Automatic annotation (TrEMBL):
Residues 102-168 form the Mechanosensitive ion channel MscS domain. It comes from Roseovarius pacificus. The chain crosses the membrane at residues 14-39, 60-79, 85-115. Mechanosensitive channel that participates in the regulation of osmotic pressure changes within the cell, opening in response to stretch forces in the membrane lipid bilayer, without the need for other proteins. Contributes to normal resistance to hypoosmotic shock. Forms an ion channel of 1.0 nanosiemens conductance with a slight preference for anions. This is Small-conductance mechanosensitive channel. GO terms for cellular component: plasma membrane. It is a multi-pass membrane protein. Homoheptamer. The keyword Oxidoreductase does not apply. Residues 60-100 form the Mechanosensitive ion channel transmembrane helices 2/3 domain. It holds the Pfam family MS_channel_1st_1. It is found in: Cell inner membrane; Cell membrane.
Length: 268
């Protein structure tokens, strides 16, 4: 019995240090979250600083605080910071090989913040996936698709792929395609489209609306309309103009060809 008590007593310092380490970890994690959140709000409240930069700086500060917490925890177990640096220095090659992808994401994160090919709230296509940018941190870019599905893209893949930013410019061009019957009046159909475009206050006058015959299809004369508008109005104009042109064509006797099936029966 005494032997057991003696053995338990020998583990008492380790148990105490473990409890201390747990407390330091919990407190450090909470402090990291509170400080990074406060910095994010402070930076984002400044209109001269981009929200993307604020989120990125907050992410860096959070990880720096957690690194300090880790060093403090190791110190509780008698591992000095200098010893830790020496160990990490000796293990740099092994860590680099094991975390090659993670380190690549980290480096790419800095490049994304430095060159800013996209910002928070912009609609982009990154690594073959399109969505609205919700967050950019040290390692990942978070997107939300139009149907509100979360997409996580590692920064290494984002930086190493073609980035298409649909929100970068204030204006966009809406391209609309319409097909009319060969027997219809082409100028009349083009005039209908132009009148509708000019009547819409959201469509810009400069560059002015453009409508041309762009091809002669198998069963239709194909017209293309190009309208400039504010980027925020792009989808509304695209959908509403398509509906308005269809209704105006019907009202003015302009037909839109559609595929027909012809059944041929041979006698005998």
């Amino acid at each position: 019995m005494e032997t057991l008590l003696e053995q338990a007593g020998s583990y008492a310092p380790l148990i105490i240090n473990a409890v201390k380490a747990l407390v330091v970890l919990i407190v450090g994690w909470m402090v990291a979250g509170i400080v990074s959140g406060a910095i994010r709000r402070k930076v984002n409240a400044n209109p001269r600083i981009d929200d993307t930069l604020g989120n990125f700086v907050a992410s860096i500060i959070k990880w720096v605080i957690l690194l300090v917490v880790l060093i403090a925890i190791l110190g509780l177990f008698g591992i000095e910071a200098t010893s830790l640096v020496a160990v990490l220095g000796a293990a740099t090659l092994a860590i680099g090989m094991a975390l090659q992808g993670t380190l690549s994401d980290l480096a790419a994160g800095f490049m994304l913040i430095l060159f800013r090919p996209y910002k928070l709230g912009q609609y982009v296509e990154v690594a073959g996936t399109a969505g609205t940018v919700k967050d950019i941190n040290l390692f990942i870019t978070e997107l939300a698709t139009p149907d509100n599905v979360q997409i996580i893209v590692p920064n290494g893949q984002a930086w190493g792929s073609i980035i298409t930013n649909f929100s970068h410019h204030d204006t966009r061009r809406v391209d609309l395609a319409f097909g009319i019957d060969y027997g219809d009046d082409v100028d009349k159909a083009m005039g209908i489209i132009l009148d509708l475009a000019r009547a819409d206050a959201r469509v810009h006058d400069d560059p002015e609306p453009w409508v041309r015959v762009t091809s002669l299809g198998d069963s239709s004369v194909d017209l293309t309309a190009r309208l400039w508008c504010d980027a925020a109005d792009y989808w509304d104009i695209k959908f509403e103009m398509t509906k308005a042109v269809k209704e105006a064509f019907d009202k003015n006797g302009v037909s839109i060809p559609y595929p027909h099936s012809v059944e041929i029966q041979k006698a005998g």
